[in-house]
Amino acid sequence: MVSFVEKKHHYLKMRYFCKMIDWAQIKRKEILVHAAWWFGYGALLSYFPLIIMDTSDAILFVLRTLIASVVIFYINAYWLLPRFIARGQYLKYLGGILVTLFVTGIIFHSTDRRKGVPPAFAHHDMEWEQVIENDRFLSENKELIYQPFRPKLKDRRFLGMSMMGIPSFIAMLFISTLFWIYSDSRQRKQHELSLVNQNLVNEMKFLKSQMNPHFLFNALNNIYSLSMLHSIKTPEMVLKLSAMLRYVLYESEDVKVKLGKEVDYIKNFIEFQRIKIEGIPNIHIDIDRADRMKMIEPMLLIPFVENSFKHSKIEDTERGWISMTLTTSENEIYFEVSNSVPSKKMAADKNSGIGVENVKRRLQYLYPGHHSVDIQMDEKQYNLHLKITTNETSMRK
Length: 397
Fold this sequence. Notes:
A hairpin with a 3-residue loop joins strand 6 and strand 7. By secondary structure, the chain is an alpha+beta fold. It contains twelve helices and nine strands. It has two domains: 146 residues, no CATH class; 158 residues, Heat Shock Protein 90 (2-Layer Sandwich), CATH 3.30.565.
């Protein structure tokens, strides 16, 4: 028989494995998106070079420009902006940009095999100038037949970059900055959501720690009393306690559980409350009509049940009473709890009401706009009406 520790270890391994798969899928998706973006950018970039250049020269130019753009994009988005702009170091960021552009421009220029196609006489300027000066006819028409080679504007370099490449590099700086702003904003939102989730987990753990010691102490005392009386219910109560602890310690780690498990826990909890009361307590429970296959977050209803036993003074079998009803429809869960209010106020413990407030916060997070909690209280009774809209049909085997 597999122990609880082995089940817990297996459960944690499965959660870790699932997280690794999710992380790998996210990274794969990001890589595919980036690859698609650079493919589209390269296709757009190749339009004009293919028109005005030879095919081989155009392909080389596009590859050089694309590689330089990739380098500028990722250095700016993943190193310069997070390292300097995020920390308010603007002068260092400006220096980093200039160095990046300078180095990239030098490499871009040094890999250009097209140094321009000079017009006639360009590579023999000194020789032809001497010939023209020695010939009278040529000398008189010098301006018509001879023009010294001068680089065109688009072939001139600035910081090692051709004028043709500067606009695309500046545009890439702008695009990478927008990308970083968007990514940083998304990461901040994810971090805030993670903090909310972590806070919810911490509150859940606090709810368990708040409940377990006191309840466990009473439950063990009750079982001990039954064993001293040699009651035939002793083994049954031990199994019930075991099932309750398994649900609290292990199954409540799941995001959602079947409503039947929550119902079983409530019934076991009530059974332990019954055996510690002398006489026949006035408890009316109607929770077996609910759809046991419907999914719900764990430990969501139990604090209301505990609260009713804590404040009803159910030990007073003449005046104390509790009534509880749980029903379901296709997409809704209805839970109603009513209990007596003793005429003499009991001393409130330091954790009084914490469990109920915890559940209210969980409901606001889990079912925003899809739940209602109506609590009414007077001098004689306390009434709770909870409705949850799940927006899902029941799970069937």
